[in-house]
């Protein structure tokens, strides 16, 4: 492999000049920069990552603390998988790499990882449970951005969707389709999306003049099985709902399955709307009405917030970002059965 000294000799410049081309390109002339880059391509030269870290005080590495319950199915949720792809793409476009951090360490585990790997910042995704390691990280001054979880810290912020607004839009849509007994399969109350979507559901019912019935609120877990079990509870009531807003698409798909197993027609007997717009939402039959989140926007917003703090070590965290959502109307929210 070519070394920096080989490249310097090839170009007739000093090693320091070659270093500046890669680490501080504005400090050399355009002609020199272009000549060194052409020679580097010919020689197959790649700058040493550790050397660049020493020279620039940056590793171009961002840690990902993903703890959605390592003993549960959190890691495989399709929305989180798609969101991770968007995040990786947005960071890659800005020249950063993602490093997955181990979970289950003590309260200083993530901070040690930041120091060990010279990480420029950290993104974290979790299941909403109290995590001392994430709290310490957010309060440490390391640039941090959380997905769907409010955090506090001078250099910590978060990105989320308009969860309450999206839930309200789904409920209003079901109402406009003639539904009056609208139940919800809520997400876990400890999570920000779960709590916000439940609040949006309740606010929409109040604005529409519909009663809030305690038996029409069943907490799920954002997964297929939880939605299926919750729907069976709702269908066992003396007065069944004629519509269900599920706070996540996987729960909505499970709810539709439970209704069909009970011999009901969807949407004729009971309408269903979800939240997320995961890829299977348009493929299941009947196709799922849902509230779409901006997955690519999530990744771009996280990257922008994180890099703004990395670029300015003295800057405070930007304010939280709340991304807009949109209602996607498909088959599961059609009109009720005539008569």
Automatic annotation (TrEMBL):
InterPro entries assigned to the protein according to its UniProt record, in alphabetical order: HTH_LacI, LacI/GalR-like_sensor, Lambda_DNA-bd_dom_sf, Peripla_BP_I
Xref: Pfam families: LacI (PF00356), Peripla_BP_3 (PF13377)
HTH lacI-type domain sequence ranges: 2-56
Record keywords, A-Z: DNA-binding, Transcription, Transcription regulation
This protein's record includes keyword Transcription regulation: yes
GO molecular function, one term: transcription cis-regulatory region binding
Keyword match ATP-binding: no
Protein name: LacI family transcriptional regulator
UniProt organism field: Streptosporangium sandarakinum
């Amino acid at each position: 492999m070519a070394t920096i000294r080989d490249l310097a000799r090839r170009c007739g410049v000093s090693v320091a000049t070659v270093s500046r081309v890669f680490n501080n390109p504005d400090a050399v002339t355009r002609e020199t920069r272009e000549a060194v880059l052409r020679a580097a391509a010919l020689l197959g030269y790649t700058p040493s990552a550790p050397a660049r870290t020493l020279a620039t005080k940056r590793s171009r590495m961002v840690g990902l603390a993903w703890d959605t319950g390592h003993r549960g199915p959190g890691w495989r949720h399709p929305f989180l998988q798609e969101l991770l792809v968007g995040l990786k793409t947005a960071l890659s476009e800005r020249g950063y790499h993602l490093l997955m951090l181990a979970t289950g360490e003590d309260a200083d585990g993530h901070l040690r990882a930041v120091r060990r790997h010279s990480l420029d910042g950290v993104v974290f995704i979790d299941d909403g449970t109290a995590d001392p390691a994430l709290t310490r990280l957010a309060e440490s001054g390391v640039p941090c951005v959380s997905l769907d979880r409010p955090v506090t810290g001078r250099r910590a912020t978060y990105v989320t969707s308009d969860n309450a607004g999206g839930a309200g839009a789904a409920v209003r849509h079901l109402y406009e389709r003639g539904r009056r007994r609208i139940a919800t399969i809520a997400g876990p109350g400890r999570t920000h999306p779960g709590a916000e979507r439940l609040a949006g559901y309740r606010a929409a019912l109040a604005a529409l003049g519909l009663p809030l019935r305690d038996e029409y609120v069943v907490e799920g877990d954002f997964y297929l099985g939880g939605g299926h079990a919750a729907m069976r509870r709702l269908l066992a009531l003396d007065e069944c709902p004629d519509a269900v807003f599920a706070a996540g698409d996987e729960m909505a798909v499970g709810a539709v399955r439970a209704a069909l197993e009970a011999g009901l027609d969807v949407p004729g007997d009971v309408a269903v709307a979800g939240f997320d717009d995961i890829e299977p939402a348009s493929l299941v039959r009947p196709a799922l009405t849902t509230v779409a989140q901006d997955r690519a926007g999530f990744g771009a917003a996280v990257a922008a917030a994180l890099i703004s703090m990395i670029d300015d070590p003295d800057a405070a965290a930007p304010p939280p970002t709340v991304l807009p959502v949109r209602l996607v109307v498909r088959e599961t929210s059609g009109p009720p059965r005539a008569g």
